Amino acid sequence: MPRKISRYLFKVANKNIWWCDYCNMPILKQLCPRCHEKGRKLILSLPGDVRPAWREDLNLMRNIIDNEYGNGIGKKLLPDDKIILINKIPWLDRMEEIIVDGYPIGAVFFDLTRWRFMPKSEGAKRINCYGGGKRVLIDEGAVKAIRNGMNIMVGGIKSIDGNVERGDYVIVVSRRGDVVAVGKARFSSREIRRMRNGMAIKVKEIVDESKIKENSSKSTWSDFLKANKGEIEERSEKTIKFISKTVDRYWSYGRSISFSGGKDSACLLSLVLEAGIDKVKIVFLDTGIEFPETIRYIHDFLRDLNVENLLIYKKSRNDFWSLFERLGPPGRDYRWCCKSCKLSSMQEIVKEYLNGRCLTFLGQRKYESYWRAYEPKVMETHYIKGQLKVNPIRDWTALEVWAYIGIQKLSVNPLYFRNYVRIGCFLCPASDMADLLNVSKTHPDLWDKWERALKCWMKNKGFNEKWLRYGLWRWRNPPKIWKNLIG
Ligand SMILES: [Zn+2]
Question: Which CATH superfamily is domain 221-486 in?
C-alpha cells in the first residue's frame, strides 16, 4: 500500500467505538450507557468507518458464504438477532469486513468476477464448529510447522474436502479437530490428491488456540439507538453550534446546502434545520444520469420535513450523453462529468440565486476519501468562484450518521437497502466493479443504455473486450496495477 494512503488511514482511524459484551452491541463511549459496564475497544481494519448491515446486505453476505462453505452456514454466521457491522476497507475493488459479537469474522470481497469470502480466525473457528466445508485435515507434525510460520506441504495433508478450487480460502484443521490456520489453496483438491510433493496451501492467518468468542446475548438496532442516543445528541449539539457560528461569521453570504440524496446529506440537512438557519437554498444538481429513486426520494424527503426552497438544477445544454459522444466515458483521472454537469451548474446558481457569494454546506466525511480527509471544515474552492465550502459532519463516522438518522426518524434513499454503499450517478467512474454489477441487476435498463454507449466507444477506439469487462473505461490511463492484472 502506498505510504500516502497508509498515512491517511492512520490519520482518519475511527477511535471512538467500543463494544459492550453484556449488551452485545457497539457503544460510542467506553462506559456502556445501558448497563454501565466497561466496553472493550473495537479492533477494526482501518479506517474503521463501520456501518450497520441491513437485511439486504446480510442476504448478500450469507449467499456469498453459503456458496463457499455450504448451505446455511451464512445464516449461522450472521444471525438475525444480533447487530452486525460492516466495515469497508481499501482494496482493489469492494471489500467489506464483517463484525459479529464485536469481532471481525472475515471479509467479503469482489474478485472482479464474483463475490468471495475470506474468513478470519474467529470466522474460521465458527465455520468449523457449524460443520462448514472446505476443510483440510493435517497431521500433528504439520501443525507445529504452521505455528513456526511454514506453509502447508502436500506431505502434511491427511485429507481435503472435494470441493476446493484453486484460490479458495480453506480451513486448516488438526486431527484433534482444532482450527490451526486459514489458508489459500494453490491447487484444487483433485490436483492436490494427485500431487507427490510441493506446497499445496499458503497460510494466510495462523489461528490461535483460544475458544470461540460466540456471544448468546441478543441485540437490535433500536437497542443501539436507545443506548447511544445521548452520545449522538451531544455530537449533534456540537455540530449545530459549529453551523450557527459559521453562519454568524459569514452573515452577509448567501446560504445553500448541497443535497445529493445520500445519507450524509440527509443528516447534514437535518442538522442545518435544527440549527434554525433560514433562507437556505437546497440544491440538487441533476446530472441526467441519476437513479430515478434518488429524484423521487429527494422530493419525498423534503415534503416530509416541510421544507421548501428546493432547487433542482438541470442543464439543457452540456447534456451528459451528447458530451459522451465527443469525450467518451468520464474517468477517475478525467472527471469531465463533474466539471460539465455539476461545477458549471453550481457556478451559475451562485451567480443567479446567491448574490455571487455563498456558504455551501456539504455532507462530506473524512472517511470517504484521501482528499476529503485533508480538507478543512471551511474552505474556499478553486472551482467555483464566490463559494465557501462548509463540511460540518467531516469527522462523523457512518455509524454516527446512521444513528442520527435512526434517532431523528429521517427517511433515507431506498437504494441503501439494495446493496448500495454510496449514492451518486449510476455510472460514476469512482464506482467499484461490485457496484456496477449491482447496477446491472437493480437497473438493467439504465445499465443496457450505458453498456451500449461503451461498446460503441470501444469499437471506435479499437479497444479489446477486457476494457469493458474489467471496467478499464473508469480511467483514461488505468493505473499500472490494473493494466498488469488484466494483462
Ligand atoms: Zn452494556
Answer: HUPs (3.40.50.620)
